[in-house]
Structure formats: structure tokens, C-alpha cells
Design a protein that fits this description.
This protein has 469 residues and is mostly helical. The chain has two domains: 213 residues, no CATH class; 247 residues, no CATH class. 67% of the residues lie in helices and 2% in strands. A two-stranded antiparallel sheet has the order 1-2. The longest helix is centred in the C-terminal third of the chain and has 32 residues. The chain is globular and about 60 Å long. The protein starts with a helix and ends with a helix.
């Protein structure tokens, strides 16, 4: 029964081509990692690892969910199945979706980190990310937001030399970091299995909670034109999608947050970044090995990933029957994108100001970070929206507690536009001119596609074919 149930769970959540691709990638990354010279990437790689861990810890809890289908509630959960077998099968499917991502992102650099304990670190990280997604639905939005911020800050404390953080194992404190990761994995995994044993109750509580919350300060569109309503909606709140796995996601729900709170948070984060560089760094030109490079790399990576998460929510909540009866498709989507970019810039502006001031004070590494904020992230943001709309559109139709789509190669492709962005972010702090030029190319390409009426006509056809209503 256990193997049959596990096979059923996996086949209903992942397409066969997707599973084959994941297996091939794992074998390839393990093979390549064995021939990479030790310490390749040096300290820059440690900044990458710590930042990614902090960001994914926060996002796994903030937008996580259980890989449960609507048919599971109607059929699977009504069968006389062992609670233990059902919990283990669902957890394993979660691990394929979330945990394997960590192996793909870090296994490639095995020899670079040159740590005999890296395999333990990666398994602990994979279990932690998987478990955080499982326990997230049982928490209120406020608790999830608070814990997400706390986890991110805790991981980033590795940059200060504090040994007992989830990021310390990738930043020089191997023993303390590994012990922390193992302990965190043990606690979260135990909590996840406990949650899976009562998943039906938690889902019902979450459904009741989400449908019975009082509406505070509702946004009114009375008296506004169709175009005015688009800008009013996207400049009053921001959506963050749950398509957070590099291979797609177990959920595609968007959480809407009042933009004033997002801007306040961005200002606080930019101020902390500014103070961090001033306190730990010293004014140096870029060519002299600026002390601002580590923080600039970390912040650039975080903003690039945040932009990707935001881009995935642009189309998920669209109601084609309503949107496209008020305006022509090309007009509607162009203004939708412009309003989305404007809301993104409200988040990025505090960081742009911080980078500009740091550069004026002599911190050369801030110039590359400024290039990322001003041109690379906005240009990539639009291209990611365009790609998601044309290649892999997903619509959330009201029930945001269950999976909306199966993991497939088409959904996997949503990460492809991010590849160019990651390259530019990686070289920005050392070669800011390349980042400015590459970002400009992204903006020109995004503008050309956005202005194409024929492209949006194809998008409408694609949305219709994929079941948008």
C-alpha cells in the first residue's frame, strides 16, 4: 500500500518528463561537482550561499503550502489510508519540489565549498525548506511574516561571524553552522509530520480564516476609468506569488500586501544595508577590492529573486472575461506591466538611493549594485512577466489552498529568463559597465515585446487554451 500510494502521489503532482529531467540534472551536477577545483569562487561563493539560504528560508515559510489537490480532499482523504503512509508520501512529494532545488543550487559547488560536512548541510537544508512549506498553512499571515523575517535575519547574521546560524556553514563556521542546520531540520521536520497528520483540519482552519477576515480599508475604483483602475490596484498593493521553486512550485497563490507596508519594509532593509556597509566596510575603489562588494552581492541576489517572485503573480489572478472586455488586450496588458514596474520601483528606490550614496562616499562595490537595481532588475522583471504569460500561465481561481497545476517542463521553463539575470548580478559588482549594458539590452528587448500587439494577441489565445476564465 505504501509504495502504491507514494507512486500515486508523485504521478499526480509531477509529469514524467519533469521527473526525468530532475534525475538527469542531479546526476549531471554531482558529476560536474567532482571535477571543480576546490575553493572555486572563493568568498563570493560564500556570500551567494548565505544570501540564498536566508532568502529561501523566508520565502518557504511566507509563501509555502502543502502539495494537496482539490481531488485529494474529495477522494484521497476519504479513503481508509494509514495516516503515517499518507503523511510520508505527501512529504516525499514536497521534498522533490522544494528539497531537490537546494541540491541543484548547491551540489554543483561541492568541491568549491570543500567541506566534508557539505552533504549533511545540504540534506538538512532540503529537509528544512520542505518542512517550512508544510507547516506554513497552520499559521496566520502575521505569524508567518514575523517568522520569515526572523529566519532571514538569523541566517544573515553569518556575515557578522556569529557561528550558530543556518548560513554559517557556508560562511566559514562549518561546525557551528552544520550543528544549527541539523537541529533546525530536526525541529521543522518533526513539526511537518505532525502537521501532515492533521492536514485536513489545518486546511479547513486556513480556509475559514481566509474567508472570514474582515476587509480593512478596501480600495475603491468608483469613478475611475479602466486604465485608472489598473494603476490604482497595482499601486495600492503588491502581490507575491508562491511559484517559488526553480522548477515551478507547489502553489501559485498570490498574497496581496498594502504597498505602504512593503515600502516601509524596503526602506528599513535599505537602511540596514547602508549601515552594514558603513560599519563593516571602508571606502575603497572597486579595483582595489572594495569592502562593500560582499554586501552588494548579497543585496543584489536578494532583489533579483524578489523581482522574480513578484513577476510570477502578474498573471495568476487575472480574470480574462472581465479584464479584456473593458480594454483591448494590448492596451490592457501594457498598462498592467507599466503599473507593475512602477510598484516594483517603489521597492527598489530606497536601495538605489543607498547604493548611490555609498558610491559617492567612495564604496566602489556599490556601483555594480546600483546597476542591478536601476536597469537589470526592472528589465528582467518585465521579461519574466512576458515569459510567464506566454509560455507557462497559471490562473488562481479562488481555492488557494490546493495545487493549481502539476509540475511540468513547461512550468520549469519559468526560470530560464532568470539565468541571464543571475549572470549579470554575478558580474555586476566587479564589472558594473557590463551590468549597465546588459540591463539596457534587457529593457530594450522587454519594451519591444511589450509594444507588440501581435504578441498580446497570442497571449490571449494561450490564456484561453490553458483554461483562464
Amino acid at each position: 500500500m505504501q509504495l502504491s500510494l507514494l507512486k500515486f502521489i508523485i504521478r499526480t503532482r509531477f509529469s514524467r518528463p519533469f521527473l526525468i529531467l530532475m534525475a538527469v540534472l542531479l546526476v549531471y551536477y554531482v558529476g560536474v561537482s567532482l571535477v571543480i577545483p576546490a575553493q572555486t569562487g572563493g568568498t563570493i561563493l560564500s556570500y551567494y550561499g548565505t544570501t540564498i539560504i536566508a532568502l529561501f528560508l523566508a520565502m518557504a515559510l511566507a509563501t509555502g503550502g502543502v502539495m494537496v489537490l482539490k481531488s485529494d480532499r474529495d477522494y484521497l482523504f476519504t479513503l481508509p489510508l494509514s495516516t503515517r503512509d499518507l503523511s510520508a508520501s505527501i512529504f516525499f512529494s514536497q521534498f522533490i519540489a522544494f528539497g531537490v532545488t537546494i541540491l541543484l543550487m548547491f551540489g554543483y559547488f561541492y568541491e568549491s565549498f570543500h567541506s566534508a560536512l557539505l552533504l549533511v548541510d545540504l540534506v538538512a537544508l532540503a529537509l528544512t525548506f520542505t518542512s517550512l512549506g508544510v507547516i506554513a498553512p497552520a499559521m496566520t499571515a502575521r505569524v508567518r511574516a514575523g517568522l520569515s523575517a526572523a529566519l532571514a535575519i538569523w541566517a544573515l547574521l553569518a556575515f557578522t561571524g556569529f557561528p550558530l546560524t543556518p548560513g554559517s556553514a557556508f560562511n566559514g563556521n562549518i561546525l557551528g553552522g552544520t550543528a544549527t542546520l541539523v537541529a533546525l531540520a530536526a525541529v521543522t521536520t518533526a513539526a511537518a509530520f505532525r502537521g501532515l497528520s492533521r492536514i485536513e483540519l489545518d486546511m479547513m482552519r486556513s480556509l475559514v480564516r481566509s474567508t472570514s477576515i474582515d476587509v480593512k480599508s478596501p480600495t475603491s475604483y468608483a469613478g475611475k476609468s479602466p486604465i485608472g483602475a489598473i494603476y490604482s490596484m497595482n499601486l495600492s498593493s503588491i502581490s507575491l506569488a508562491g511559484r517559488m521553486n526553480m522548477a515551478g512550485s507547489s502553489r501559485y497563490v498570490s498574497r496581496r500586501v498594502r504597498i505602504r507596508w512593503v515600502v516601509i519594509t524596503a526602506c528599513a532593509a535599505a537602511a540596514a544595508y547602508f549601515a552594514f556597509v558603513l560599519y563593516f566596510g571602508s571606502p575603497q575603489p572597486l579595483t582595489g577590492g572594495s569592502d562593500s562588494v560582499p554586501a552588494a552581492i548579497g543585496m543584489s541576489i536578494a532583489l533579483a529573486f524578489l523581482s522574480f517572485f513578484l513577476s510570477q503573480s502578474a498573471i495568476t489572478n487575472e480574470r480574462v472575461w472581465l479584464s479584456l472586455t473593458s480594454l483591448p488586450a494590448a492596451t490592457y496588458f501594457r498598462h498592467l506591466i507599466v503599473s507593475r514596474v512602477a510598484s516594483l520601483m517603489l521597492i527598489l528606490t530606497p536601495f538605489a538611493v543607498a547604493d548611490a550614496v555609498l558610491y559617492a562616499l567612495g564604496y566602489g562595490g556599490a556601483l555594480g549594485a546600483l546597476a542591478v537595481v536601476v536597469v537589470v532588475v526592472p528589465g528582467s522583471f518585465v521579461l519574466e512577466i512576458l515569459w510567464a504569460a506566454y509560455v507557462a500561465p497559471i490562473q488562481v481561481k479562488g481555492d488557494d489552498l490546493t495545487m493549481t497545476a502539476q509540475f511540468s517542463l513547461r512550468q520549469t521553463s519559468t526560470v530560464l529568463p532568470f539565468a541571464a539575470v543571475f549572470v549579470l548580478v554575478s558580474v555586476a559588482t566587479l564589472l558594473p559597465t557590463v551590468a549597465f549594458e546588459g540591463g539596457a539590452i534587457l529593457i530594450i528587448l522587454a519594451a519591444a515585446i511589450t509594444m507588440s500587439g501581435g504578441f498580446w494577441g497570442k497571449v490571449v489565445t494561450r490564456l484561453t487554451e490553458t483554461g483562464f476564465v
